[in-house]
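ingest -> validate -> predict -> emit
validate: passed (alphabet ok, no gaps, 248 aa)
predict: started
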Amino acid sequence: MPKLTANNKAIECKLVIFDKDGTLVDQHPLLLELAKARRNSIQKNADEKTAKLWEKIVGVDLKTGKIDYNGPLGTAPRREELLVAASAFYLNGCSWSESRQRAQEAYDEADKSMKPPYGSVLFAGVSEALKRLKTGGLELAIASTDTRKRILEAFKTLKVNCLFDEVVGSDDVANAKPSPDMILEVLKRTGFKSEEAVMVGDSLSDMQMGRNAKVKTCIGVLTGISSPEKLRSTADVVIRSVAELDVQ
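emit:
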């Protein structure tokens, strides 16, 4: 069995499951591009007042480029963020039924306006690390709050799609992180057992998802939203970046 190495620790495993944003991809430019597209669509669908209210409730300030990474834009699956977005319409005088419909229409229009890789930029050394692991005999998978379609299209543009054996997005499962649903779906599709898998992510919810799915090891990376202290409280191993991963 291959051995994944992280911070001088060798871990026997067959499958490595990665979070995407903040782990493989720089979260800030991605979320900014997403926020710009959604805000523009909401302003077009409604008005400036609703668009400003939307910025506040999802946790973004496009004038300064500041993002609350613990807010709805930074953490919520699309279907949950849609309900938050609907609140902006509701607080601006629409009925709840109309608010949900208009938020859905605005987000659909925003999605159509965006092109791959949707602001995604791989962290330095990530592509090379993924190739090492794949060549070394490990299977690789994604468990992300992004949608499956957008993950696949972004990775195709970034030329790393061929390195992944399976991709599971938030739209593939009923429950978001830290529920184990995404990992369990990856395991179901790949045929591996939880004790043969490792989870790699940047957030506490990634680590908790791994724990809930009973994977062999949870590896935290410091390229995302969590502090070293918080990650060390839940992860088995903490490394600076996915670029440090290797295989024996």
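Residues 28-113 form one domain.
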